[in-house]
């Protein structure tokens, strides 16, 4: 169940990151509300995942996969460029996440 909570936390993390850009410095009400709720939801569900996952594994997966999702959706939503260097970084993050999961024995 911890990996389910972590997956939900990752979705919230991506929503938080993308929402932060949409707030325009927290000057727009509904994007700001969305961003704050996403941040709270992400931290809450991450805390549930960390009941059984090592903090090093859980937090690293949360930020790593959240970063990949943010870059990919940032390209779709905000028309940001995905460069070869970003693709290589994705591969490194995914490889690291796989190794962390394997090392956790889960």
From TrEMBL:
Keyword Transmembrane set for record: yes
Family, as annotated: Belongs to the drug/metabolite transporter (DMT) superfamily. Small multidrug resistance (SMR) (TC 2.A.7.1) family.
The family database entries (InterPro entries) matched by this protein are listed as: EmrE-like, Small_drug/metabolite_transptr, Small_multidrug_res
- Kindly name one Pfam family recorded for this protein: Multi_Drug_Res
Membrane topology, as annotated: Multi-pass membrane protein
Q: Does the keyword Electron transport apply?
A: no
Which keywords does this chain's UniProt record carry? Cell membrane, Membrane, Transmembrane, Transmembrane helix, Transport
Q: Where in the cell is it found?
A: Cell membrane
The lineage is: Bacteria, Bacillati, Actinomycetota, Actinomycetes, Streptosporangiales
UniProt protein name: Multidrug efflux SMR transporter
């Amino acid at each position: 169940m911890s990996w389910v909570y972590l997956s939900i936390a990752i979705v919230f993390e991506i929503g938080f990151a993308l929402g932060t850009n949409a707030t325009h410095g927290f000057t727009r009400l509904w994007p700001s509300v969305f961003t704050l709720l996403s941040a709270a939801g992400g931290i809450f569900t991450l805390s549930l995942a960390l009941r059984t996952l090592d903090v090093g594994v859980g937090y690293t997966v949360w930020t790593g996969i959240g970063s990949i999702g943010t870059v990919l959706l940032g390209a779709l939503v905000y028309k940001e460029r995905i460069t070869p260097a970003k693709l290589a970084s994705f591969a490194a993050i995914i490889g690291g996440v796989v190794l962390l999961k394997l090392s956790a024995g889960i």
